[in-house]
Amino acid sequence: MQEVSIYRLTDEQWDTMLLAVPKLNVRDRHVFEAILHVLSTALPWQDMPEDFGITSRTAWNRYQKWQEQAIWEDLLGSFLGCFPHHVRMGWERTLREAALQRAQKFGTRKRPLVHEMAVIPALVRDN
């Protein structure tokens, strides 16, 4: 099995991201790197390498939180904006392909989301 290298942000990239998304803290750098690794390799969250210094649960929770707060798109956009066009396109392709692999490998959610559930009125009988 081929080992996948881990991408580490440069200080310049991180500084650019801090300017774009001021809600970040120092620890978020490792969290972003971990999330980027999982999303670009199509690994299951629980198979995330320990090299990031955080648990896969922490990375997953922060990813969910950033998604809910609409921060993830800003983070990813500022990260990709650090690269020349051809490198940015390579990252975007890698992330798209990994998302497709994840969907094929793990399928869709097994449980319906709340907004997908139908509400059926109960029958009421007069006595």
From TrEMBL:
InterPro entries: IS402-like_dom, Transposase_6_like
TM annotation in the entry: none
Domain Insertion element IS402-like: from-to ranges: 9-75
Protein name: Transposase
